[in-house]
Design brief:
The chain has about 190 residues and is α+β, with helices and mostly antiparallel strands. It has 2 domains: about 80 residues, Nuclear Transport Factor 2, Chain: A (Roll); about 60 residues, Nuclear Transport Factor 2, Chain: A, CATH 3.10.450. Helices cover about 35% and strands about 35% of the residues. The protein has a 4-stranded antiparallel β-sheet with strand order 1-2-3-4. The chain starts with a helix and ends with a strand.
């Protein structure tokens, strides 16, 4: 009878120890991550894009950052928790502001980016999401489901997910600076 009592006590202690360890592990997983500070977000963007930050605001779980790169103003949306770039888009030009000339609608964004690249600054120029979307749709017919700007070993590229008419999903990988299609893969 005493053996059964000791087995129950030992089993209970073991169960409590396992529950304690489980709650500690579960607690670590469910705690909310700390967001980047304003200075950390600023440093991250300045190092990544080599420009001057003119404005930075935190809205909910992202930072909205304005950057001046060679007289062109860009808006960068950055995930406040992991530093992932959510979007990178051109919003204006200091040259345009100074000259007060209206923007010509027939002039594509890529021409402005090409001029920036030829300026000899050595900085990388990023295609807009809409330009990447157009390139992807020339390769695969369908509807764009999602588009993400990714970075891997100093290579920036867009991953464009496209739903095709035959219910397949294509993922088109596009070089963010040159617009070259790097790969196309299909999921069933």
């Amino acid at each position: 009878m005493r053996i059964k009592l000791w087995l129950w006590i030992g089993g209970s202690v073991l169960l409590l120890a396992l529950l304690f360890i489980g709650f500690q592990q579960w607690g670590r997983v469910t705690t909310s991550a700390e967001s980047l500070s304003r200075n950390e977000a600023k440093d991250l963007v300045e190092k990544r894009y080599k420009g001057e930050i003119t404005n930075i605001e935190q809205k909910d779980d992202k930072y909205v950052i304005e950057m001046d790169r060679n007289q062109i103003i860009y808006e960068i949306k950055l995930n406040a928790f992991n530093g992932e770039v959510l979007s990178f888009s051109k919003i204006g030009s200091k040259k345009e502001e100074q000259e007060q000339e209206p923007f010509e609608e027939g002039q594509p964004d890529q021409e402005n980016q090409q001029e920036l690249g030829e300026a000899g600054s050595g900085t990388k120029v990023i295609l807009s999401e809409s330009a990447a979307k157009e390139i992807a749709l020339k390769e695969v017919d369908g509807i764009v489901d999602d588009i993400d700007l990714e970075t891997s070993d100093d290579l920036m590229y867009y991953l464009v997910e496209i739903e095709t008419a035959d219910d397949r999903e294509a993922v088109v990988e596009i070089h963010a600076s040159t617009g070259k299609v790097l790969s196309i893969s299909f999921d069933d």
